[in-house]
Amino acid sequence: MGIKSEDKGTPGHNKYGYDDLVTSEDEKMGLSRCGKFLKYSMFLFNAVILIAGCGLLGFGVYTRTSENRLTQLSSILGSYYYSALSMSLIVSGGVVIIISFLGCCGAIKEVKCMLGTFFIFLFLMLLSMLIGGIVIYVYRENIGDAILNELSHSLNSTFGVAGKKEVTDAWNIMQTFFECCGVLGGVNSTTSWAYYREYTVWFKNQTDDMKEYVPESCCRNVFGLNRTKCVGGPGYENIIPAILPPVGSHQENDLLFTDGCYTAVEGFLTDNVRILAGVASGISVLMVMGMTFAICLCRRIKDEFLFD
């Protein structure tokens, strides 16, 4: 009674009988190409994100430890808000570095555990961004009121006061950059350009007979007579800022910024909302791409115990 010899030449068959574990050469090559594409695409993707994370961390440390124009602005908004912003940058940068490192190593070393951790961290980060955006939207009025209170307090009691140069410089920078004057409102508001005259210690402390109603930073083209006209000097008593609101069109001053800075910044953000939305959407898409790469690569990596 003879025993039939095993046909070793039959494709898709091996001596252990695990036919379903062996694929044709064409299938192997296809999987190899796809796997390598996912592997190196994910590595490059995370390498770029790693560099961005280092930049974000470095910028956060810079804002936290160095004297710069941003630190000057903290004297307006309050050190609490500025510290929270700088710490958020540092923490975000550190988290991005850790996540991208996991992605790089998991991809190049083909380690499922690292890729899984990368996916979870990325998902949690995306979820945190979504929750943070919702919280900011829900409490936007409270946040706005808190910022307005800080702006009003700093301008009212510390602008132009001896020993508070950083506050004065910060207001001058903001008013020049955003072309604004005062806190809130437009040309007929008592809390925009008229705020200086109505409420500030800076105006009350002026001892000259001809007081300046607004600082130079509220003016465009401050040269010679232009400056005199803008700050309300002699010969310009019938236009703002020498008169208080409400004002007619013939009493307006083309050299004076008339929008409050909160209003100007709010308008700036509104004008650029599409850009901001595009950036947020782009970041979200990149995060989803990263998670997709991780899932696909995990599925392509073969379990070692099957092929040892």
Automatic annotation (TrEMBL):
Location (main, coarse): membrane
Protein location: Membrane
Pfam family, one: Tetraspanin
Transmembrane segments: 37-60, 80-103, 115-139, 275-298
Membrane topology designation: Multi-pass membrane protein
Key words, A-Z: Membrane, Transmembrane, Transmembrane helix
Matches recorded under InterPro entries: Tetraspanin/Peripherin (IPR018499), Tetraspanin_animals (IPR000301), Tetraspanin_CS (IPR018503), Tetraspanin_EC2_sf (IPR008952)
Gene Ontology CC annotation, any one: plasma membrane
Family: Belongs to the tetraspanin (TM4SF) family.
The protein's name: Tetraspanin
Organism: Lymnaea stagnalis
Lineage: Eukaryota, Metazoa, Spiralia, Lophotrochozoa, Mollusca
